Amino acid sequence: MLGDGKFGRRKSAATSLGSLGDRKAVEPIIKALETERESDVRISEVQALGILGGPEAINCLSRIGTDKDEYKYVRNSAEKGLMILKGGGTVNASSFY
């Protein structure tokens, strides 16, 4: 569903994958971020990575958080998730609001 033609479905897929908590979803989400252009979907994907955590998610969030060409809200979400993960805290969907 991360590659679906409708952005609402892609957004829901990213949110659901984050909620499930299975780190096997990290790699597909990172791959989806490589081509995703909709800011709302990118935010959901970044938030899912923040929830799932792990070294690959942290690396991706670090890149996105410092990418000046990235949407501001996406960068902010990446930075927030990264701060919480690096601080040893638990990230959940409400952490981003």
What does this protein look like?
- With 97 residues, the protein is mainly alpha-helical.
- Helix 2 runs antiparallel to helix 3.
- The chain starts with 6 loop residues before the first helix and ends in an 11-residue tail after the last helix.
Task: Describe this protein with a few key phrases.
single chain, 97 residues
- Any idea what the radius of gyration is? 12 Å
Structural class: mainly alpha
Helix amount: 55-70%
Query: What is the strand tally?
Result: 0
Q: What order do the helices and strands follow?
A: HHHHH
Biggest sheet, open or closed, and with what strands and sense? none
Instruction: Tell me the number of helical segments per DSSP (H or I, 4 or more residues long).
Output: 5
Would you identify the regions where 5 or more consecutive residues have pLDDT less than 50? none
Query: What global shape is seen?
Result: globular
> Would you tell me the overall average pLDDT?
92
Straight-line distance between termini: 25 Å
Strand content: under 5%
How is this fold's topology laid out?
Layout: H1 7-20, H2 26-35, H3 39-52, H4 55-66, H5 72-86
Summarize the structure.
With 97 residues, this protein is mainly α.
